[in-house]
Amino acid sequence: MDDVQRHLGNRLAIEGGTPVRTTPLPWELPGAHWIGAEERALVDRVIDAQSPFRFYGLDSQKMVDTLEAEWCETFGHAHALAVNCGSAALHIALAAFEVGPGDEVLVPGYMWVSCISAIVRLGAIPRLVDIDDTFCMDPVDLERKIGPRSRAILLVNMSGAMGRNAEIAAIAKRRGLFLLEDCAQAIGGSQHGVPAGRFGDIGIYSFQLNKNMTSGEGGLLVTEDAHLHRRCVAIHDLGFARNEAGRLDPNDERYQLWGMGCRMSELAGAMALAQLRKVRTITGHMRHAKWRIRAGIEDLPGLTLRHVPDPAGDTGPFLITVYPTADICDRFVAALQAEGIRGPAGSLTCIRMRDWGMHWYFNIPSLVRRRSLARDGFPWTHPANAFAQDYQYDRGALPVCDDMEQRAALLSIASVLSDADVADIVAAFRKVGNAVLPH
Ligand SMILES: *Cc1c(COP(=O)(O)O)cnc(C)c1O
Asked: Which of 19, 266, 358, 405 is a plausible cystine mate for 113, CB 3.0–4.6 Å?
């Protein structure tokens, strides 16, 4: 740690000292950085075959079918269904559980806005649950919030890692609730050998640009239950089953539903298939860098790291740190940035959780103000939802979320961090910690 000693002697860069580094950290959208010849080769096959639709065509290359089959093989699921985005996957999964007016869905206050919108669009009520030291749903608060109207739990594996998933799956089972596991931010993750998505009745993923792998837009659902799978297949399409030849079968009475037109195209399927084959490499790099940084800073007095129950199953895209007060958090992040721990201008590489937008419940104006797509105020005004009249959605509803938004910070971990980048990050944390944290 000679390097660190050398920096400790310096004044903080924010006070005019020499910064630990001057070149920006690499800012990366993990999957996108790895797009290359493999994606091009599969996309070219679709184009050459002039067959971009998954269910039929003159010379289908079966990219989406292959993606689903390889997903099941790679992560050990019985059924997979690719769709056009993660937001649609959430809606389809909740619809497969028959969630609607009169139901509430328990959802953590640290999530992504798509989680809430899926619940509200279906006519159900979001019931907010606090987080714990894992930055995921707190099982104790969950038990407190479950009521007679609860139908499903939406567990979100936030910022690359999982929380107390096994405990929450056991609660869901004991209380007779469906469990939907949102793994959009944790593709390739696991916990004590159980893959992300396996804890829930349905697991969903997103292949949007910010995720561990990407097809630009895209998503996928997994389930072990054949009936739920067939419901999802019908809902994502036109509302009906399809036969082996890809033809609609509107006469199958079990699946005469309403469809969303959220099929994945063969072009996205080709991209996603090439990315799936790389995703463990991508997450392996991020996890390795992140845990070396953690090891280098975990002894700093006054600094707390997010609790990750199984580090081996972390996918690594974010490092979350917690400070004694909001003021120290502010000063720490500003000082870190001045030391050169930041990406290029405009990137969100090193930020306070206060700058993390609609990941926090009270930053979602449509939720706080109970907005509706319809003129009559549905679903908030639906008589079956009168039970939820007094539910709180503004700041103050969840004490731990409110506190962590003030006192925590987030560092993006690129899959291309070099040893020197990792050493700089550790040195900067120690230098700033020495000056800013209480001893
Ligand atoms: C990105 C994301 C989604 C939505 O996925 P899209 O493909 O962008 O629609 C849902 N949930 C979480 C937690 C996400 O991070």
From this structure: 358
Of 117, 114, 104, which Cα lies nearest the Cα of 152? Answer: 104
Establish whether 145 is a catalytic residue: no
pLDDT in tens, 55-89: 999 999 999 999 999 999 999 999 999 999 999 99
Please tell me the distance from the alpha carbon of residue 359 to that of residue 381, in angstroms, as a whole number. Answer: 26
User: 2 pLDDT exceeds 70?
Assistant: no
144 CB burial (10 A radius; 0-12, 13-18, 19+): exposed
At a CB cut-off of 8 Å and minimum separation 6, what does 7 contact?
A: 20, 427, 428, 430, 431
Q: Which atom of ligand 1 is nearest to the CA of 208?
A: 7
How much of the chain, in percent, has pLDDT values that exceed 90? 95
Cβ pair 125, 105 in contact under 8 A: yes
Give the CA-trace dihedral at 346, 351, 356, 357, to 10 degrees: -50
* pTM recorded for the entire structure: 0.97
CB 349 less than 6 A from any atom of ligand 1: no
How many A from CA of 87 to the centre of ligand 1?
6
